[in-house]
């Protein structure tokens, strides 16, 4: 799930008042953010290696 998709899922759950769906969406958003951070860290390391 992309970060944007997770954001929309959280917003939809908030508007519907479905707390279970909200929890699942938040969990998926956290996972998406963790994956994005990992990719950014890997890209940063590759960029640093190319500069050396």
Description:
This protein has one domain. It is an all-alpha fold. The mean pLDDT is 88. 90% of the residues lie in helices and 0% in strands. The chain is rod-shaped and about 50 Å long. Keywords: Coiled coil.
In short:
This protein is mainly alpha-helical.
Structural domain count: 1
The Rg value, from CA coordinates, equals 15 Å
Report the uncertain regions: none
Helix content: over 70%
Structural class, by secondary structure, is mainly alpha
Q: In sequence order, what are the helices and strands, one letter per element?
A: HH
User: How many DSSP E strands?
Assistant: 0
Sum up the overall morphology in one term: rod-shaped
What summary fits the major beta sheet?
Answer: none
List the total number of helices.
2
Query: Per DSSP, what share of the residues sits in E-state strands of 2 or more residues?
Result: under 5%
Distance between the termini: 35 Å
The overall pLDDT average reads 88
Name its key features:
2 helices, mainly alpha, 52 residues, 90% helix
Write the layout of secondary structure elements.
Elements: H1 3-16, H2 19-51
Helix pairs in contact: 1-2
């Amino acid at each position: 799930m992309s970060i944007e998709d997770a954001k929309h899922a959280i917003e939809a759950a908030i508007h519907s008042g479905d707390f279970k769906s909200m929890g699942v969406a938040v969990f998926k958003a956290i996972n998406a953010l963790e994956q994005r951070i990992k990719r950014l860290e890997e890209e940063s390391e590759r960029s640093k290696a190319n500069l050396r």
